[in-house]
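User: Mitochondrial carrier protein. Structure?
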Amino acid sequence: MGSSQQGSTLSTNVSGYVDGSSAGREISHIDALPVYVKELIAGGAAGAFAKTAVAPLERTKILLQTRTLGFHSLGVYQSLKKLLKHEGLAGFYKGNGASVLRIVPYAALHFMTYEQYRCWIMNNYSALGTGPVIDLLAGSAAGGTAVLFTYPLDLARTKLAYQVAETRGSLGNGGRNFHAQPLYNGIRNVLESVYREGGTRALYRGIGPTLVGILPYAGLKFYIYEELKRHVPEEHQSSILMRLSCGALAGLSGQTFTYPLDVVRRQMQVEHLQPSTSGGARYRNTWEGLAIIIRDQGWRQLFAGLSINYMKIVPSVAIGFTAYDTMKSWLHIPPRQKSRSVSAA
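Assistant: Predicted structure:
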């Protein structure tokens, strides 16, 4: 009785795939999507999961980078405690909506354009070979492309995260925090306010150091990741732990080299919100920003928040890679074509 019932169920499932019933149609709809669309979906979902998981650390990092009143002299743990005390759990996720809204298209574009650039370079510049140099170039180009399309959302995320609510009292030593700074109530409000103040150019303020930083960072991340994987035995190439370890090392290396540029970018984004000081000149470009920060704040400020960035990069990479691999499996994305020296990313 049980076996006949199982047989009947099996025949129904098989016939469903044959005659185009709901199960068959569901799979055909997924398979009918172009590969680049599947990569966009998988990359966007992975980015959203990873960014939300490390949102408290990201908020604290921005407060440290921008020397927010009441936070610039604190460490990571004390900053998290102060945020929890004054803003509650919601304070950990202030600006995360803008962050996720930015990271979904950013991660989606980054993964998809990386694959496209990589194929284009291999097809048109075969003299470069098929090794990790291709990943360096494709990763850099993909990072720049993704930044150009999503930068205004990153600007909105930074401005929202930079705000510290004063509804729960003083944050500084006897003084209240920036009561003069505008309080934005959402992503749209930030974008509208910034556009009214300075037009499209204001929406892209700080993009110089962003591009200067993302081009080597994205390229190095892919380069180091693929180069590390080349030294992994073939039987371990599909190991999730191996992917996470290589990705974490690649992310840490890239961050260390390019982090000062990220600090300049953050300070340029929130510059007009900070109280003016004697000698506080506006940063006209990336290099001037670096010079002024070193002169007025010391070279250590160029690495403010780096320790927390290390703390968040490992779980971020872990969750991002795991989610991306899972989504690729669900969406039936075929493995990226292997080169002679590089395995699929």
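Residues 1-21, 166-180, 339-345 have pLDDT under 50 and may be disordered. The radius of gyration is 23 Å.
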